[in-house]
Design goal:
mainly alpha
């Protein structure tokens, strides 16, 4: 009898736990878990945009029923990507406007951000369908605006990456275990510089095999110059930014240069194996999947890093005996959704090569001369922002000293 009661109590606890979880899913879930659901929605939107671009013609008969599609032809290829992107953008802008400046948990806006998933999924479906009812002229206007929004996303991501590198350097240089940290810093910095030099050498071999490849030679050589410039400024006695940060920034800059050259259209004589690039093989599929996941991961990681944009940081930790109603939110909800909204514009630009009139091959991302120059300008901007973060305190202190 006691065993039967024990089993019954256990079953009731399981049912109670399940019902509690379902209640949280409907109403107030964990804000940390909510991030992954938003990222999943973003991933599905990416896949829908890709399907509209590469396989939209298979759904032509269904699209004929939508008034904004003009018989289906205006919902295919690049315009189909822009329509899906617009729907994703509208969804996250609504979330941004409804959750901005949320500071405390367990209030209405916190509950809306972390729960009510059935309502928000229905909202996402509606916002995804609405752009397919709009005229083509409106979508083209959105495509022009999306260039600016994607640029904002790249700038936010850049500042977030530089802040992370600075934070990592400060952690390694902290007073805890200074001796072992110095060894790790030197090891990481040396590895970073070796990888940078190896990457530059390989880019010369792969993407500048002939003296006539002047543009690629310029890109790679200028990247080497920028790497040397960052190192020299960082190690200057007045700056004293140590050796780890320029090494990590060098990795990021070399990576951007590689992405820029890889974005050049297939068939260029300065890119080896360009003939095989015209064929869709397993390597193309893997590259495409990795590219899609990279977009989602980059947007996700940037969205939770709102602290790098705070001008004034609260140094006083919250009291231990604060009530549940006074618990601060773990990250900026409004900033999180704003990053995803600009990320919706960014993935649209990647899928159409930053040019709505440029045809894209299947299973390709960010290919075209426009994409190449966007990457290169992003690389140069990254170096400028990094150097400004090093020099700005010195300029500010000198002006402050001179005025006093």
């Amino acid at each position: 009898m006691e065993a039967g009661e024990s089993n019954s109590d256990s079953a009731r606890r399981v049912i109670s736990k399940d019902s509690s979880w379902c209640s949280q899913f409907r109403n107030a879930s964990n804000p940390w878990m909510a991030r992954y659901i938003y990222a999943l929605i973003f991933l599905v939107s990416n896949l829908l945009a890709w399907a509209a671009r590469d396989y939209g013609r298979g759904a032509l008969t269904e699209m004929k029923r939508l008034k904004g599609c003009n018989g289906g032809k205006d919902c295919l290829d690049a315009e189909g990507v822009l329509r899906v992107s617009l729907g994703c953008f509208i969804f996250y802008i609504i979330m941004f406007l409804s959750t901005a400046r949320t500071s405390k948990q367990n209030n209405v806006r916190d509950t809306w951000h972390s729960g009510w998933w059935s309502v928000k999924i229905a909202l996402w479906v509606v916002t995804t369908v609405i752009p397919f009812l709009l005229p083509s002229e409106f979508i083209q206007i959105y495509g022009e605006v999306a260039h600016f929004g994607a640029g904002v996303f790249l700038l936010i991501q850049l500042i977030s990456i530089i802040s992370f590198i600075t934070w990592l350097d400060e952690c390694c240089e902290s007073e805890k275990y200074p001796a072992s940290c110095q060894i790790h810093v030197m090891l990481f910095a040396t590895t970073a510089y070796v990888v940078c030099l190896v990457g530059i050498i390989l880019m010369y071999i792969w993407y500048a095999p002939k003296p006539s490849c002047l543009l690629n030679i310029f890109f790679i050589t200028w990247t080497l110059v920028l790497l040397q410039l960052m190192t020299s400024v960082s190690l200057h006695p007045k700056v004293d930014a140590r050796i780890l940060t320029p090494g990590l920034m060098g990795l990021y800059v070399v990576f951007l240069c590689w992405c820029a050259i890889r974005s050049e259209p297939a068939g260029e004589n300065c890119i080896r194996k360009s003939d095989s690039a015209n064929k869709t093989d397993w390597l193309s599929i893997i590259s495409f999947v990795v590219g899609i996941l990279a977009i989602v991961i980059a947007t996700f990681s940037t969205g939770i890093d709102s602290k790098c944009f705070q001008i004034r940081k609260n140094e006083t930790p919250p009291a231990e005996d604060e009530g549940d109603d006074d618990v601060r939110v773990p990250y900026g909800y409004g900033f999180f959704h704003f990053v995803f909204a600009t990320g919706a514009m960014y993935f649209a630009m990647l899928l159409i090569g930053w040019n709505s009139h440029h045809p894209m091959r299947k299973l390709t991302i960010d290919v075209g001369w426009t994409s190449t120059w966007v990457r290169i300008v992003n690389e140069w901007l990254a170096v400028c922002v990094y150097l400004w973060k090093l020099i700005a305190p010195i300029i500010w202190n000198s002006r402050h000293t001179g005025s006093s």
